[in-house]
Amino acid sequence: MGAKTIEKIKTYNPSGFREKFLGEDNPIHLLFKSNSDHFFCLEIEEIMQMQHPVPPCKHSCHTLIFISSGQHVMKLGSQEYITTDNEIIVVPAGQIFSLDNVNNIHKGYICQFHPDILIGKYGSREMLNEFDFMKISGNPKITLASEDVLNVSAVLKRLHKEYSETTTANLNIVQSYLIALFYEMNKNSVKSAKSISAAEVITNKFKELIHQNIKTHHLVHYYASLLNVTPNHLNKSVRTVTGKSAAKWIDETILLEAKYLLFQTTLSVSEIAVQVGHEDQSYFSRFFKKHEGISPVQYRKMIDKS
């Protein structure tokens, strides 16, 4: 990482973060050496100056955070995850996430990479299906067995070296180490098919479907028909696995998509309403205020002033 980039990150001021996020000085963008790389791997200590709360947003790259010492709190979708010593959290590309408590990480790595890197020369989409933690509906948190910590640390150290000690990262090397890293992680995360209940299978498929269709379809019976089950059966399965109804999941996903658009785009509230499937702006505003206690306009102003 060049001296100018380090200096920009050190002087980064979280005030007016939304404006900076939308501009060229987004601190994450600064970490990519070129538009063709779309990859970085850093020790967490190197970017501690960037740590600040982040409202709901999403990225076109996958993000992996390994905590070797300390604690990290992140929301993926509407679910909060606390990651601590020898644990990994994965944020798949396109997943909405937010950060509140960001000051307790002491050691570890953060690695971000574009999905195309994983396909590249040696990969395939079929291979990626083996990694549950890379799916929107999967379990994003991995607790490493003690015997696997050194192996994972060694791979991340090598990725860090490729990023920090080369002018342009060799993406064939990056891809090879990422694949090796994923298989190391898979030993600690994958479930056997026998251990996954029918309700979990339906719920995971439902989560994937609402992620894909939330901008156009908001009714439980639509998703039930896609899954070839009754709305009642879908609702019972989702509630059994998650403790929330299918309708609640749909509402929370609409709300998260709206928050992301309010934070990460310059779209007007009426345009955002259409983006989340509400043609009537006044209905969308009432929906938003019912769940958040403030209007979409007030939410955006609150972020701008933070």
Folded structure, characterized:
This protein is an alpha+beta fold and 306 residues long. Helix content is 49%, strand content 16%. The protein has 14 helices and eight strands. It has helices at residues 3-10, 17-22, 27-31, 115-119, 125-128, 146-164, 171-189, 198-213, 220-226, 231-242, 246-264, 269-275, 281-292, 296-305; strands spanning 39-43, 54-57, 62-76, 79-84, 87-91, 97-99, 105-113, 141-143. Strands 1, 2, 3, 4, 5, 6, 7 and 8 form an eight-stranded antiparallel β-sheet that branches. Helix 8 crosses helix 10, helix 9 crosses helix 10 (231-242) and helix 11 (246-264) crosses helix 14. The longest helix has 19 residues, at 146-164. The protein is globular, with a radius of gyration of 20 Å. Mean pLDDT is 85; it is low at 1-15.
Q: What portion of residues is helical? A: 40-55%
How many β strands by DSSP? 8
- Mean pLDDT rating: 85
Distance between the termini: 28 Å
Radius of gyration: 20 Å
Give helix and strand order, one letter per element, not per position. Answer: HHHEEEEEEEHHEHHHHHHHHH
Query: What class would the helix/strand composition place it in?
Result: alpha+beta
Which sheet architecture does the biggest sheet show?
Answer: 8 strands, antiparallel
Low-confidence segments = 1-15
Which percent range describes the beta-strand content?
15-25%
**Number of contiguous helices:** 14
Using the alpha-carbon principal axes, give the shape.
globular
